[in-house]
Amino acid sequence: MRWLSLMGVSLFLAASVQATSIRAYLIRASNDTNKVTDVRLKEIEPPLKVQFGYQHYQLLGVQQEPLKADKVYRLNLGEGFVVFVTPKGVAQDRYELDVEWTSGKASLMKTTVRITKNKYLFVKGPGVGNDWIVLALTVCE
Amino acid sequence: MKLHNPKLVGALLDGELKGLQRLLMQRHVNRCAVCAAEHRLQRHVRAMLTANPPGIPPMSDSPDFFWSKIKREIQVQGDKSLEVPVPRLGFLDWLDRRRYALMGVAVCLVAAGAVVWLTQAYRSAPPMVAGRPVMTLLPVTVEHVSTLIPNSVATPVETKDDDDTVIWVSGLPWTPDMSEMKTLYANLDT
């Protein structure tokens, strides 16, 4: 019976140990019919459409890092946009993060958010032509 | 039917079992290593007795006298150790002998799974009061937000669903294309 118990405990631990990551997307929201939604945004497209109403979403850059406390993450999303994320802690299954979105030398936005796994924080950024630049941030497995 | 019963094994060998009882016992002997060993042993004894019939006339002792002889023999042999052959059991026999323990483990695992599932279900479903959900912690909340770009403002806005949150940075400089945007923001000092 001992080996059976050990096997059960091992299976339980293997199932419960999962790496948590922070992921950031740089997205261009557009109604231009020449553009199509990137397949890599398939999962995130429905909430984007709900929040912003644009027809097409182009992925400009994406970065993902394993989440560790007391570390400042620099997520370079391309096109000159960089997101700095500082995890502060976890409470009630929500991750508290300091987030700063920069472009070049300019700090576009600074915020402190509490975010649940697999939920999104969207930031509507600058306009380009008829389009918008959107930042999406999530904590995922 | 009571399992591991040597009397029933003997009865099977003697042809005393009939019908369903015989069928069930035969099936049990075919599957149970302990009873199969008992069956083999008894069959062997019968074969030996058949091959070597007693050369002396049947015992004429009374039952009491015969039993007193047996008791005396037991007393004489009492201190001697007797080696009983133990049949070698396979994995299925091991499982069979521990079936109640294994069933207990399975029931515990199912119960633990049910508890975890119920806990998760309770956690994901908001508590209801008078048929309406009570406001709980939103999946994403903005503690504070600000922007350093002149003539701009950053505000969290109410969204169409509670799952995600949007921060709206209004008043950021507009550019006609991405290359101009890079140049503009590269030189915009905050």
Tell me what you see in this structure:
The complex is a heterodimer of chains A (141) and B (190). Chain A is built from 2 helices and 8 strands, in the order αβαβββββββ. Chain A is of the alpha+beta class and 141 residues long. In chain A, strands 2-1-8-7 form a 4-stranded antiparallel β-sheet. In chain A, a hairpin with a 2-residue loop joins β4 and β5. The longest helix of chain A has 15 residues, at 2-16. The radius of gyration of chain A is 18 Å and the shape is globular. The two termini of chain A are 34 Å apart. Chain B is mainly α and 190 residues long. A two-stranded antiparallel ribbon of chain B has the order 1-2. The chains are: A alpha+beta (141), B mainly alpha (190). Chain A binds chain B through residues 1, 4, 8, 47, 50-51, 79-80, 92, 94, 96, 103-116, 119-129, 133, and chain B through 98, 101-102, 105, 109, 137, 139-149, 154, 159-161, 163-169, 172-178, 181-182, 185-190.
Describe, in short, the structure shown.
The complex is a heterodimer of chains A (141) and B (190). Chain A is α+β, with helices and mostly antiparallel strands and 141 residues long. Helices cover 16% and strands 55% of the residues of chain A.
Which terms summarize this structure?
heterodimer, A: 141 residues, alpha+beta, four-stranded antiparallel sheet, 2 helices, 16% helix, globular, B: 190 residues, mainly alpha, two-stranded antiparallel sheet, 7 helices, 52% helix
Topology:
The complex is a heterodimer of chains A (141) and B (190).
Chain A: H1 2-16, E1 21-30, H2 45-52, E2 56-66, E3 73-78, E4 81-91, E5 94-103, E6 106-116, E7 120-128, E8 131-140
Chain B: H1 6-14, H2 19-31, H3 33-51, H4 63-77, H5 91-97, H6 99-124, E1 128-129, E2 132-133, E3 140-146, E4 153-157, E5 165-170, H7 178-187
Antiparallel strand pairs in B: 1-2, 4-5
Helix pairs in contact in B: 1-3, 2-3
Q: What is the strand arrangement across the widest sheet of chain A?
A: 2-1-8-7
β-strand amount of chain A: over 45%
Strands of the largest sheet of chain B, in order across it?
1-2
- Count of structural domains of chain A: 1
Query: How many angstroms does the end-to-end distance of chain A come to?
Result: 34 Å
Number of domains of chain B: 3
Assign an overall shape of chain B. Answer: rod-shaped
Gross geometry of chain A: globular
List the quaternary state of the chains: heterodimer
Radius of gyration of chain B: 42 Å
Q: How much is the radius of gyration of chain A in Å?
A: 18 Å
Give the strand tally of chain A.
8
Detail the poorly predicted runs of chain A: 11-17
Portion in strands of chain B: 5-15%
Which class do the helix and strand fractions of chain A yield?
alpha+beta
User: H/E series of chain B, N to C?
Assistant: HHHHHHEEEEEH
Order of helices and strands of chain A: HEHEEEEEEE
First-last Cα distance of chain B: 89 Å
Task: Indicate the low-confidence ranges of chain B by residue numbers.
Answer: none
**Average pLDDT score of chain B:** 81
